[in-house]
Automatic annotation (TrEMBL), chain A:
<keyword id="KW-1003">Cell membrane</keyword>
<feature type="transmembrane region" description="Helical">
    <location>
        <begin position="240"/>
        <end position="258"/>
    </location>
</feature>
<feature type="transmembrane region" description="Helical">
    <location>
        <begin position="52"/>
        <end position="76"/>
    </location>
</feature>
<protein>
    <submittedName>
        <fullName>ABC transporter ATP-binding protein</fullName>
    </submittedName>
</protein>
<keyword id="KW-0472">Membrane</keyword>
<feature type="transmembrane region" description="Helical">
    <location>
        <begin position="126"/>
        <end position="150"/>
    </location>
</feature>
<keyword id="KW-0547">Nucleotide-binding</keyword>
<dbReference type="GO" id="GO:0016887">
    <property type="term" value="F:ATP hydrolysis activity"/>
</dbReference>
<dbReference type="GO" id="GO:0005524">
    <property type="term" value="F:ATP binding"/>
</dbReference>
From TrEMBL, chain B:
<keyword id="KW-0472">Membrane</keyword>
<dbReference type="GO" id="GO:0015421">
    <property type="term" value="F:ABC-type oligopeptide transporter activity"/>
</dbReference>
<dbReference type="InterPro" id="IPR039421">
    <property type="entry name" value="Type_1_exporter"/>
</dbReference>
<dbReference type="GO" id="GO:0005524">
    <property type="term" value="F:ATP binding"/>
</dbReference>
<keyword id="KW-1003">Cell membrane</keyword>
<dbReference type="InterPro" id="IPR003439">
    <property type="entry name" value="ABC_transporter-like_ATP-bd"/>
</dbReference>
<dbReference type="InterPro" id="IPR011527">
    <property type="entry name" value="ABC1_TM_dom"/>
</dbReference>
<dbReference type="Pfam" id="PF00005">
    <property type="entry name" value="ABC_tran"/>
</dbReference>
<feature type="transmembrane region" description="Helical">
    <location>
        <begin position="183"/>
        <end position="200"/>
    </location>
</feature>
């Protein structure tokens, strides 16, 4: 909450003006019943038309004043709420940009998206309301009571007794209702979750003909939603008529007391009417009040979701004042790592090796053996839990992360491209690249011929997530993108999997010629046989390191692996979309 | 006195309601659902009628009572009035409670039924529908639009009716009490209309703007979040943030004006309320001095004028809400109106089959103008393995889709054990098959439940056996929660390869006559691969298998290889035959697997 306040503080001036304008409106509204009573007592009952006209004119004038105040308020309130919303969105986006992958995984993509959009919108309307009506309803109830006492204390006693009692009841019910609505939200999430999953897996659902099963499961989630929703709504909607009834009865009581007072001569009729009017207006405020509680509770939930992102630790990603990158050997020294979410299960354990500058390390291992984890440690997407990784003798932790990443070209397992043209995507690797650079990189990645044949060439637009390209094409564009950097170190995380053997070996040959230190994760020994060193991983542990010949001669793990791939059923891959 | 406003004018900070194509038809469809509880609905309407009438009578009796109090009439008369007033308030409360209580029941049941129908309908739609639709868009229909309908049904029907009844009734009562004062009170209406027009003309523009920029920003956030790692690897954080800020600023500007102008509406209403109050008190005071009305009438009028401007306000509000809900409902019904998968009138159940599969000159096109498959004829004997080979876009996946009857051929027939699949119930057809798809779709449920998806009645032992057969048991056992580990849709609870193992186990447990396998291209390492090959071999034994083959291993073992290009079969035979032919296949194998494959 305090964080949000600091964002509001920026707009302190506008906020104060908006609140003052709102107070002006409030004063006008509070004066109205008073003036009404005066008109009745001094004008109507004394048959004085000029008093009626004078006070009536004042009423009209005040209305216009309130209107002007209200309109002006709109500008200032919108300025605050939209400004804060923008700033909060910006801060969230910035924070998320510098998340480490583990943080990103903690929140899923879709929650981050809703938090940045609908939750911020919720906060924004809450702020807007706050500066317009939020204080007004409670203040009106409070000052309405004060005014009623000023007009006629004996009549106001009725309101003084009834209003706090009814308001108290209402707040209790509302708070309970808000809680119920929260459980409705949980139910709704369940229903939507079922729906989403069903849509996503539709092919499978159909192939296994599980329509009815899915339907049953859906109804199992949908039923509780109906029940919860009905309950919550009924609580809210049946309470209000009761509260209104209480207020109406207190109006009767005012008249009752008033009739005695009038007979006793202690009260003027106009005063009775005036207090009555205060009572009615307070009642109307009740409705607004209940709305405010709803709004506030919804807003509070949104705010806490926003704050939880803003309060996420910054990771150690923004280390700006490290030393610069020095090219040289890459060394892992007793590196261990586990994912924060699965701390009991080490993903990597005690990994040590050194790759001299310009050499190639092939990494082989089973699914889940930790190959990708290792690849992610190199550009410091994650940091080792124990041990160090050093570049040219400098501990990775001490190197400015941007500097480090500028020198490392990574081609991840999943070929991810951004919407835009092929050229724009390639320029990610090097903003100032020339056409020659583009051609060179794409040639090295074995995709130039393909791009050349496209009607728009490098200007071909890539659809969201690269839907209009095959897996192999995307992989090669990603390789080219990494090459555009002219990196010192190149990390290929199984990124030639969708390529046929010939294309793959062409590309790998090219890479060997380039002066990069190369890490290559592969499924097939054949892909990495030529590497200077091979690192074998099994369940996060090193099973050996050495070149093909050495390992074949002495490493049992490697021998098994090799034999498995040498059989006639050697695993090969046909290019596939 | 009167009911509380359920939604404050400020609550509608939303956008201008979207276009509705056919209001009448959509309302009719919604009505059909509500109509299932017609009797209850009629009761609600009766209650609405009574409570609205009482909300008119209440202020009147209150005004009369005020007059009598001022006139200092006898206590017995006053008591009668007080009792009468109390009775009115009690009835009003009861009718309000009942109408709300029942209406909530009706609306929630309506939404419940609609949701179920919608979901059921989705299950019947053809796969091509889902391929055409954007996921996010469809999801938004099913969730946001549905929620919108739900919320509006809860309150809007009652409120709308009440508003109209109160509006008409109030004006009637006002005219009856004092035509002159009524006329004066009504002078605010033209101001209201002109003012609202002025405002909405502006807001609609800015809301449209705001929606557009919000959509922009949304897309940008989504893309940059899913490419988060890449952005980091290329140190593009700053550029990304700068671009975001631009879009964010545009959204703010549009939002600022939209919100400012919308903010005028309640102020305008408020002002008119106050002005009418001033008019009533001033002019009413004048009239009272002249003796043409009583003080009680002034009191009554001040209440009526609120009751009269509020419904106006509410109506404007409700109208927008209702319109946007109707638009939402329309989008929901559009989904429901989609034609379900075609079924022939007389479809037989397919009993346990041997697995004889035959394609007879099958042609098929996704888009009418471009044929995806042209005259495919092939035959697989029970237990045979058919490998489908060919470049991307050759039609391999389409053949499988037709076999599973995701689609029906445009011409020609697909026969299983001699039966045209068109004449067979889809569910009985798919009962005979199991699939392992390239993307291993899994659910956010436990591993056990995911495997059991293949055969719902399977016991825990059978699940574990299937996992063993698929060589998944060992890794599952190592997970902290074993078979009860709940899979996450994203995130790294298990690896891609492990997900594939699970999807194989799922097919194992089904024990079908026909197996459809879209081989994964990657992400299973060699050792696991071997285990899988071994498992698949077990699985394929005695079953007719259609495999989109990416591995030479599979192709070698196939009884027939079907080589596809541009939707036609260009070569067929076993590996040795095809290599001997020295044709397209030979070229393909040479290029893709290297010379050694043929040796």
């Amino acid at each position: 909450m305090r964080i949000i306040l600091s964002y509001i503080k920026v707009y302190k001036g506008s906020a104060v003006i908006a609140l003052l304008l709102m107070l002006l409106e409030l004063v006008v509204e509070l004066l109205q019943p008073l003036i009404m009573g005066i008109i009745i007592d001094r004008g109507v009952l004394r048959q004085d038309l000029s008093a009626v006209a004078g006070w009536g004119g004042l009423l009209l004038g005040l209305s216009l004043l309130a209107f002007i105040a209200g309109i002006t308020n709109s500008f200032f309130a919108a300025n605050v709420s939209q400004g804060v919303a923008r700033d909060v969105r910006e801060a969230m986006f910035k924070r998320i940009q510098y998340f480490i992958p583990a943080q990103l995984q903690k929140f899923s993509l879709s929650t981050l998206l809703t938090r940045m959009t609908s939750d911020v919108t919720q906060l924004q309307s809450l702020l807007f309301m706050a500066m317009r009506i939020m204080l007004r309803a409670p203040l009106f109830i409070l000052f309405g009571l004060v005014m009623a006492i000023i007009v006629e204390p004996s009549l106001a006693t009725v309101l003084l007794l009834a209003v706090p009692l009814l308001l108290g009841c209402m707040v209790i019910v509302m708070v309970k209702g808000v809680k119920r609505f929260r459980s409705v939200q949980t139910n709704l999430d369940q229903v939507n979750h079922r729906l989403r999953e069903n849509l996503f897996n539709m092919r499978l659902v159909k192939a296994y003909d599980r329509g009815e099963f899915e339907q049953k499961q859906f109804e199992e989630a949908n039923g509780p939603l109906q029940v919860a929703n009905t309950k919550a709504l009924r609580l809210m909607e049946t309470t209000m008529p009761m509260i209104m009834f209480g207020m109406n009865m207190s109006l009767i009581a005012i008249l009752w007391v008033g009739s005695y007072q009038l007979n006793g001569g202690g009260t003027q009729p106009g005063e009775v009417v005036s207090v009555l009017n205060y009572g009615m207006r307070i009642m109307f405020s009740f409705g607004v009040f209940s709305f405010l509680i709803m709004l506030f509770s919804r807003g509070r939930a949104s705010i806490s979701r926003i704050v939880s992102i803003l309060e996420e630790y910054e990771g150690n990603d923004r280390n700006q004042d490290g030393s610069s990158y020095q090219s040289g050997a890459v060394a892992f020294n007793h590196v261990s790592f586990n994912y924060p979410t699965r701390s009991a299960y080490p993903a990597l354990e005690d990994i040590s090796f050194t790759v001299p500058r310009g050499k190639m390390l092939g990494i082989l291992g089973e699914t889940g053996s930790g190959k990708t984890t290792l690849a992610q440690l190199i550009p410091r997407l994650y940091q080792p839990v124990r041990g160090t990784i050093s570049f040219g003798g400098i501990d990775s932790q001490d190197i400015r992360v941007e500097d480090l990443r500028e020198k490392i070209g990574v081609v991840p397992q999943e070929a991810h491209l951004f919407s835009g043209t092929i050229r724009e995507n390639l320029l990610w690797g090097n903003k100032e690249a020339t056409m020659e650079d583009l051609i060179q990189s794409t040639k090295d990645a074995g995709i130039y011929e393909f791009i050349k044949e496209l009607p728009d060439g490098f200007e071909t637009t890539i659809g969201q997530k690269g839907v209009n390209f095959s897996g192999g094409q995307k992989q090669r564009i990603c390789i080219a993108r990494a090459l555009m950097k002219r990196p010192d170190i190149l990390v290929l995380d199984d990124s030639t999997s969708a390529l046929d053997a010939k294309t793959e070996s062409d590309i790998l040959n090219k890479l060997t010629d380039l002066p990069y230190t190369v890490f290559i994760i592969a499924q097939k020994i054949s892909s990495v046989k030529e590497a200077d060193q091979l690192l074998l991983l099994h369940e996060g542990k090193m099973q050996g390191v050495g070149n093909h010949k050495e390992l074949l001669a002495s490493n049992e793990f490697y021998q098994t692996l090799y034999q498995s791939q040498q059989k006639k059923g050697e695993v090969h891959y046909v290019e596939n979309s | 006195m009167s009911r509380t406003p359920k939604s404050h004018p400020h609550s509608r900070i939303g956008q201008k309601p979207p276009k509705i194509n056919d209001l009448k038809a959509t309302l009719k469809k919604v009505w059909k659902y509500v109509d299932r509880q017609r009797n209850l609905f009629i009761l609600v309407m009766v209650m609405v009628l009574i409570s609205s009438a009482l909300s008119l009578v209440g202020p009147y009796v209150l005004g009369v009572t005020v007059d009598r109090v001022i006139e200092k009439v006898e206590t017995t008369t006053l008591i009668q009035l007080f009792v009468g007033l109390a009775a009115i308030y009690i009835f009003q409360m009861v009718t309000l409670i009942l109408q709300n209580y029942w209406m909530i029941g009706i609306s929630q049941h309506t939404v419940y039924t609609m949701r179920n129908h919608l979901f059921a309908h989705l299950q019947k739609l053809s796969l091509s529908y889902f391929q055409k639709q954007q996921h996010g868009e469809l999801m938004s229909r099913l969730t946001n639009d549905m929620e919108n309908v739900s919320r509006t049904l809860n309150s809007s029907i009652i409120q709308f009716t009440t508003s109209i009844l109160t509006l008409v009734g109030t004006i009637g009562m006002m005219v009856w009490l004092s035509p002159v004062l009524t006329l004066l009170t009504l002078t605010i209406v033209p101001i209201l209309i002109v003012g609202m027009k002025w405002i909405t003309k502006r807001t609609s523009v800015y809301f449209k703007d705001q929606q557009k920029h919000l959509g922009d920003l949304n897309g940008y956030i989504e893309e940059s979040l899913s490419g988060h790692a890449i952005i980091k690897l290329f140190s593009r954080e700053k550029e990304t943030i700068v671009q975001f800020n631009e879009k964010n600023e545009q959204l703010k500007t549009a939002g600022y004006w939209a919100q400012t102008y919308t903010g005028f509406i309640p102020k305008l209403m408020n002002m008119l309320n106050n002005v009418s109050f001033a008019i009533i008190v001033g002019a009413g005071g004048y009239l009272a001095v002249q003796g043409s009305i009583s003080v009680g009438v002034i009191v009554t009028f001040t209440t009526y004028s609120r009751q009269f401007t509020r419904p106006l306000n509410d109506l404007a509000n409700q109208f927008n809400m209702i319109l946007s809900a109707v638009a939402g409902a329309e989008r929901v019904f559009q989904v429901m109106d989609e034609e379900p998968e075609k079924t022939e009138k007389k479809e037989d159940r397919l009993q346990a089959v041997k697995g004889d599969v035959r394609f007879e000159s099958v042609s098929f096109a996704y888009e009418t103008n471009q044929a995806t498959l042209k005259g495919i004829t092939l035959h697989a004997n029970p237990g045979e393995t058919v490998a489908l080979v060919g470049p991307t876009g050759a039609g391999k996946t389409t053949i499988i889709s037709l076999l599973l009857r995701f689609y029906d051929p445009d011409s020609g027939r697909v026969l299983i054990d001699g039966k045209d699949t068109k004449q067979v119930k889809r569910e009985s057809l798919r009962e005979q098959m199991a699939v392992v798809l390239q993307d291993s779709f899994l659910f956010e449920k436990s591993i056990r439940e995911n495997i059991r998806y293949g055969r719902l009645g399977a016991t825990d032992e059978e699940v574990e056996q299937a996992a063993r057969d698929a060589n998944a048991h060992s890794f599952i056992r190592k997970l902290p929660d074993g078979y009860d580990t709940v899979l996450q849709s994203s995130g790294s609870s298990i690896s891609q390869g492990q997900r594939q193992l699970l999807s194989i186990a799922r097919a194992m447990i089904k024990d079908p006559a026909i197996l459809v396998l879209d081989e994964a291209t990657s992400s299973i390492d060699t050792l696991t691969e071997m285990k899988i090959n071994d498992a698949l071999k077990k699985l394929m034994k005695g079953r007719t298998s259609f495999v989109i083959a990416h591995r030479l291993h599979t192709i070698y073992q196939a009884d027939q290889i079907i080589v596809l290009q541009n939707g036609s079969i260009i070569e067929r035979g076993n590996h040795d035959e095809l290599v001997a032919q020295n044709g397209f296949y030979r070229g393909l194998v040479d290029v893709q697997f290297g010379q050694q494959a043929v040796d």
